[in-house]
Amino acid sequence: MARGNIGRVRATRSAGMLPVVLALTSAALLTGAAVYTVDRAGCVDPGQYIRHDNHIELVGGCVDGSELPAAPQETSHEADAKTGVTPSNFRP
Fold first, then answer.
1. What is the greatest pairwise CA distance in the chain?
2. Do residues 76 and 70 make contact, with C-beta atoms less than 8 angstroms apart?
3. Per residue in 52-76, is it b (16+ CB within 10 Å) or e — as a string?
4. Is the CB of residue 49 less than 8 Å from the CB of residue 57?
């Protein structure tokens, strides 16, 4: 009995290139959208990171503190005490 390609589709080189072309096109479009978004942001002062003794702080930038939502007033320990949940890494 002769072996043949009955029932099998033979992949061609052009069919293998289609995913590569689509991926490169998508990457180019996403890169263009990112550049356009950053260009239109209009931020004059991008801010800078300043290293202190044990932390890093962002100084300057386009986001004003009044634009941020208010921080919750209770600590996580107070919230856990209300619900009765103790974290798995809790060490008294």
1. 81
2. no
3. eeeeeeeeeeeeeeeeeeeeeeeee
4. yes
CA 22 from chain centre, in angstroms, equals: 22
Q: How far apart are CA 84 and CA 90, in angstroms?
A: 13
Q: Residue length, the chain?
A: 92
Query: What is the mean pLDDT for each group of 10 consecutive residues in the chain (92 residues)?
Result: 57 76 96 90 81 86 76 63 63 60
CA distance 34 to 29: 9
The three-state secondary structure class of 24 is: helix
| Beta-carbon contacts of residue 17 (< 8 Å; ≥ 6 apart) | none
The pTM assigned to this predicted structure is 0.40
| Cα 38 to Cα 42: distance, rounded to the nearest angstrom | 8
Q: Parallel, antiparallel, or unpaired: how do β-strands 56-59 and 48-51 relate?
A: antiparallel
